[in-house]
Amino acid sequence: MTVPDLATTQRAFLFADPAAHSLSPRMHGAAFTHAGLPGTYEARRVPTGALASAVAGLRAPGVLGANLSLPHKEAVVPLLDSLSDAARAVGAVNTVIHRDGQLHGENTDAPGLLAALRDAGLPDLGPGEPVVILGAGGAARAAAFVALRDMRARAWIVNRTLDRARALAAEFRPHGEVQAAAPDDVPWADTPLVINASSAGLNDPEQAPLDASFLARLPAGALVYDMVYKPAETRLMREARALGLNAENGLGMLAHQARLAFTAWTGADVPVRVFLDALGEEAGSGSVAGRTP
Ligand SMILES: NC(=O)c1ccc[n+]([C@@H]2O[C@H](COP(=O)([O-])OP(=O)(O)OC[C@H]3O[C@@H](n4cnc5c(N)ncnc54)[C@H](OP(=O)(O)O)[C@@H]3O)[C@@H](O)[C@H]2O)c1
């Protein structure tokens, strides 16, 4: 496999719909500058019907690859030449790497989440300890992968639509102990980690994924990780902190998934702080709501 010629300008993209307010150009622009590389990163609105031709365009010389966001992370899979184990297991690709006309699919959301959980002070988990995942969409798939394959935890999936939680649990059962559950059936008192992978709170800061009464049942020192990153403190986080629990927002995951994609494209190891700093102004300005990663 040829290493990309990083002395000449190399291009990377985001394909999403919508894409206009993406934070990724800001993060990757800062990373190219930090690494001293003459690259560009451009967010393009790609409607579903245009995905195949946009992806085919990534095979051109001078293209490093692309990020995929809603609604393309699953639809891109059959358009690629190879997949990493993580992308195959999660069933979604957020990073395409181009080398010599070949396109390789990677999922950096899952390791990005794991890195962010560690930064947030993830408690040491024993095998089979409960991890609760709220939501059953694309982000919950990455969380289930991390809980089962990286942590060897027992995953409990709680979702507004229980049937979707059941379907996700059935799909991930080959990877470990996982089950769908109604909130009342979860062993909250033994749960050191709750991951909100639902979009509750994304467009309405006062919206929470479920009734907050479960928070009072969590053990001291539990971490509540909310993948939502605007507002910087969601209602879920606020209520968790009021009870003395550890709570973090999704900015760390956003920065880590971008860092891992950048390294996959360029080989450059840019510190996560560069990506977080690029987000910092936006995150603090209150204008991140509803944005595409
Ligand atoms: N920080 C990061 O880097 C990062 C990365 C990826 C995603 N995310 C965030 O993760 C969230 C989920 O993304 P996704 O791609 O998984 O979305 P998705 O595939 O559309 O799934 C959304 C999930 O949220 C649930 N939900 C929506 N509104 C709800 C509400 N009011 N109350 C309870 N549950 C609700 C849905 O339940 P139903 O099944 O009942 O509809 C579904 O399970 C978004 O906020 C996204 O921004 C963050």
Describe it:
By secondary structure, the chain is an alpha/beta fold. The protein folds into 2 domains: 11-107 and 257-285, Rossmann fold; 111-251, Rossmann fold, CATH 3.40.50.720. The chain is 33% helix and 18% strand. It has helices at 24-35, 51-56, 85-90, 109-119, 138-150, 162-172, 235-242, 251-266, 272-285, and strands spanning 11-16, 40-45, 63-68, 82-83, 95-99, 102-106, 130-134, 154-158, 178-180, 193-196, 223-226, 246-248. A 6-stranded mixed beta sheet has the order 2-1-3-5-6-4. A 6-stranded parallel beta sheet has the order 9-8-7-10-11-12, sandwiched between helices. Helix 7 links the parallel strand 11 (223-226) and strand 12 (246-248). The longest helix is centred in the last third of the chain and has 16 residues, at 251-266. The protein is globular. The structure holds NADP nicotinamide-adenine-dinucleotide phosphate.
